[in-house]
Amino acid sequence: MDDPMAIPPNSEDGLNMPTDNSSTTNPLLTLIHDLKENNGRPGSVCTILLKVLAGNTDGLFVDDGSSINYQGATPKEIHGEFRSECTYTAELDTHFPELTVGETLDFAIATRSSQSQYVKNVKDVLVDIFNLSGAVTTQVGNGFIRGISGGEKKRLSIAEAMVGFSSIQCCDNSTRGMDSSTALRIIHHFRDLATHREATIIVSLYQASQRALDAFDKVTVLYRGQQIFFGTWADGLKYFHSLGFQIPPQMTTGDFFTALTNPAEARLLVREGMGSQVPGTAEGFHKIWRESKERKLLLNGIKMFNQECLPRAEMVDQLRKLRTAERGWSITLHTTSQSSDKSNCASVEVFQRNKNNIALPISTVIGNTIIGVIVGSVFYNLSQASDSLNRRTILLFFVVLLNSFMTGFEVLAVWAQRPIVEKHSKYAFYHPFTEAISAMLVDLPAKIFTCLFFNIVIYFMTNLRRTAAAFFTYLLFSSTVLMTMSMFYRSIDSLSRTLQGSMVPINTAIVFFIIYTGFVIPERYMHPWFSWIRFLNPVAFAFESVLINEFANRRFECNQFVPSGPAYDAISTSDRICSSVGALPGQTFVDGTTYLKTVFNYSPDHLWRNYWILLIMMLGLCATHILSSEYILAKKSKGEVLLFLCNKALICNPKMDEEAKAGQSPGIKNLIDEKNKQPEAPKGLNDHSSTFCWDNLCYDIKAEGKPKRPLNEVNGWVKKGTLTALMGATGAGKTTMLDVLS
């Protein structure tokens, strides 16, 4: 039977970066050592290089002198029409935390084929290869949802990327969070992909054992952003030996390459008598590399490759026909399978996320219903007399505001999903706009129930206008303004490239929407410079309409006159007037239409005009959200940077004896630790003398409604002044145990 994970063969792929980093890669495996990260310095040269090779250049500038040749295809073609052929797997794992491991893989595979048996076969293979069988029914999780371990997340990320059948795969720190055995197994799997399926895989490893390094064909060493070697690791040993360095017997090759970029460690690797000849800086290493015969051979290989694989349309057409014939579906500009199938997959995925996290919509409905009860109790059973006019106005103002702002949490929800959606788009799983549409449709039932329960409770508790037409009109405007403001939040989110960039306009708009609703500042008192805001304010149109719906063509009997008192009870109606605003002399009631005209300058004719304005706003904001989610990407960081706050600085010794100077490499400083000084413990840390112990520690979680026990009868203790190691294979429950104990 054919292997369901089979990747179509890919012939030679050329990667040419002649400025600083030059290499050609056949169907082989390349290891990139991120030497700056290994030494704890800020920046991630390896991450940047992998992003450039994979086409993730957002926030990065690639020099015009650099060139990348994908066997006759230009970077624009590869990262546009064939973007699924070259993928980047980031060091930090991004997954939907609500989905289980199995659902995550099912969705990724379903975007490639709608055949259920194929999806099942491929998932079974991936689960077996990456040892995820024990976590298939477990949610991925995040900081709020208990889920799988960090090593399992990393393996899930790699498995998800493998589903895309990419010919070129760039994996950043692909063994993060894994034990040595699991990491070695992943490396051997990469080796099999490169050997048997002719995939080109570029991997960065921060700690490479010798057995892992043996699996790689090529190694490139980077030092502060500059290439100092490219070739096999055996040739690398010879090359650096010729420079005057020697690897100690107990040191692995990977650690040796890493140590060369640390001046303090490199000094200890210098062969006897070579101290004055070895380079000591990144510039020195790079200068020697540029003049070396190894680099000349590399450049000759690049030149020959570029001559054989000149960018031309025939190569692109050939690749297009090859992928169409092998995979059974055509490749278009932004997708690699039928759009309808991808839309269905996105809808199913969003539905599964909501189903697995059903507590959120349920709590939203219940919470807003409780708020409705509280507001209704404050304005409970308003009278039908004129003294309720002001209270009814205040009530409707707050009701419109609550309906408008109860979906404000979507600001954070959209941003939590955005990096995951963009990653899936890079993998050509689906269009981002399909996920945006699916999310709006799946969230619709929760919004409807929230709107119904909240507004029905308030409407009948407060004794608003008791006619069927008024009730359903009130519900219509309440739901419409809720959806309009929801589209407003989503559109601002998708138009912004950072969360901070979206919060500023949203918060500013909310303030102006409240002030220029027409209640805080009536229309006639608005300053001309800012009065135009009310024409862009959906809250203002909804407020006007619900007031018209409540007061228009309705009489409120007056229960307080001016003058009033026992002495004035016998006077005729024509000699006194109702004390409420909008009353006319000689009338014992207040006409609602007159009240609206007098106080707010509202006209009943605006009722349905406002509804169409709200509807147009909602549709326009919805279209803006859909289009911007497709074409505007979130701002990417230029590289993960880890900063350490140093309490004790290293001291540079200005005095050196002649013997030390003779063995010192140029540019290398003699760094001396304060070994004789013990760091003082933080204040209060020594006050505890008790022993921390745990007995029969158990921890249960639910997976698909069934109990699961990650920790079962764990015993132990930690005494003051001791250091305890927590050990176990990836997924054993180490992180879970630390969380429980803390």
Keywords:
ABC_transporter-like_ATP-bd, 10% strand, two-stranded antiparallel sheet, elongated, single chain, 742 residues, six-stranded mixed beta sheet, ABC_transporter-like_CS, alpha/beta
What's the layout of helices and strands?
Layout: E1 29-34, H1 35-38, H2 45-54, H3 75-78, E2 86-89, H4 101-110, H5 116-129, H6 150-162, E3 168-171, H7 180-196, E4 200-205, H8 210-213, E5 218-223, E6 226-231, H9 233-243, H10 253-259, H11 263-266, H12 282-290, H13 293-308, H14 313-327, H15 339-356, H16 359-378, H17 389-405, H18 410-426, H19 432-461, H20 468-495, H21 499-515, H22 538-551, E7 555-557, E8 561-562, E9 577-578, E10 589-591, H23 592-599, H24 607-631, E11 651-652, H25 658-662, E12 671-672, E13 692-703, E14 706-718, H26 734-741
Parallel strand pairs: 1-4, 1-5, 2-3, 3-4
Antiparallel strand pairs: 5-6, 7-10, 8-9, 11-12, 13-14
Helix pairs in contact: 4-5, 4-15, 15-19, 16-19, 17-20, 17-22, 18-20, 19-20, 19-24, 20-21, 20-22, 20-24, 22-23, 22-24
Short characterization:
Residues 17-249 form the ABC transporter domain. The protein is an alpha/beta fold.
Notes on the structure:
With 742 residues, the chain is an alpha/beta fold. Among the domains are: 28-92 and 168-323, no CATH class; 339-552 and 604-631, no CATH class; 692-741, no CATH class. It is 46% helix and 10% strand. The chain is built from 26 helices and 14 strands. A six-stranded mixed β-sheet has the order 2-3-4-1-5-6, with helices on both faces. A two-stranded antiparallel ribbon has the order 7-10. The chain is elongated and about 120 Å long. This is p-loop containing nucleoside triphosphate hydrolase. Residues 17-249 form the ABC transporter domain. Residues 671-680 have a biased composition (Basic and acidic residues). It holds the Pfam family ABC2_membrane. It is found in: Membrane.
